[in-house]
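Pyridine nucleotide-disulfide oxidoreductase (Amycolatopsis alba DSM 44262), 456 aa
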Amino acid sequence: MVIGGGPVGEVAAERAARGGLRVALVEHERFGGECSYWACIPSKALLRPGNLLAAAKRVPGVPVGDAVDPAKVFARRDWFTGKGDDTGQVKWAEGVGIAPIRGHGRITGEREVTVDGGDVLTARHAVIVATGSVPRTPSIPGLDTISPWGSREATSAEAVPRRLGVLGGGVVGVEMAQAFATLGAEVHLIISGARPLPRLPDFAGDAVVAGLREAGVIVHTGSGLDSVSAVDGGKELALKGGDRLIVDELLVATGRGPATGGLGVETLGLEAGAPLKTDDNGRVSAVDGDWLFAVGDVTGRAPLTHQGKYAARTTGDAVAAQAAGKSVDSAAWSAHSATADHHAIPQVVFTDPEVASVGLAGPEEGKPHRVVDIDIAVAGSSLHADGYAGKARIVVDTERGVLVGATFVGQDVSELLHSATIAIVGEVPLSRLWHAVPSFPTISEVWLRLLEAYGL
């Protein structure tokens, strides 16, 4: 039984079914989950037109206008999300042998899940939790009186607010600030630090701020909200430091936490709201009996859709193997272990410029790490856009001579990321990577320049 019918739960259910198990998939909202209807897909659909317009303006001779058409952007987003119709996902589940069950599933005993009205389901082999994450709401006086936006309201908006405040300098904050600025809103981004994306190298946050300002976003650094209140004509934001703003909507994008509330984990001696900590096979470590597994954001390991689907494949296969009486391989990099969570988690921030990173963002203290930073200034980038500005970083384990981290910032750098991920996961020696010749003239030439800068 799988609780949570988003992309991660769907993959876990499919892998278990492929392994010969009868599988029930329980979902209380929409099959397809957060990513499909309120997160990854609609947010990128909102961002892409503005990024494409900015890119076109950087190449002389391309006939472009001055703005995107919000109505057409929203219509294209709605095509991707199906306006919330999950019929296709339900049919897909049934087509691969999964029984979709609509309702809120709560763990009420060992291998036992009670759904909404009292239907009690018992799993013969295992329960896999894939309930994802929920927004964290900060404690700000007045916030509960103004009906703020969360990421769902932002990505499903039917109109562009004239003035939008965005609180938070993480991925959701910067992406939605840029999307709505290009759609025509006056956007104020409010962040507590000197730059957004604090877990990435400083040059990444600085480049994103520059891109946001170029798009018209007003960035308030070193700030926050003391209070908010409803006033005639909108919502008043009292910023730390004394400034005040009037906006029509406020998007609160201050992070997410594991969705374990209401799941019944207390019956197992676990804490609601805390992540379900697992081993690399997906087994919940604090629960005896080898029956409870968890994958995706709910584990707190690597809260990204693609990483959750990766863990769902390994865990679904592990559950199927265990049920068939076969050995579950716990060795690193085996088919049943989500080892990459510890070494190579790729992520793209789809702003303009893009930020693409995998592995370490910088050296670890006491480790034999060397950092190489260069500008992305090759023939391919120059052809890609006039005035192309970008940076690249690699982090190298000098004892083993392998890559352990990479960060790229610039227009269209997301397509550079998988090559870095392969190099890290495969532990490709830099001396061998030197022989992976990049095509000319592409932005991938930056790999040659990075290795030259390293000293090969």
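The first helix runs from residue 7 to 18. The chain has a mean pLDDT of 97. ok done for today
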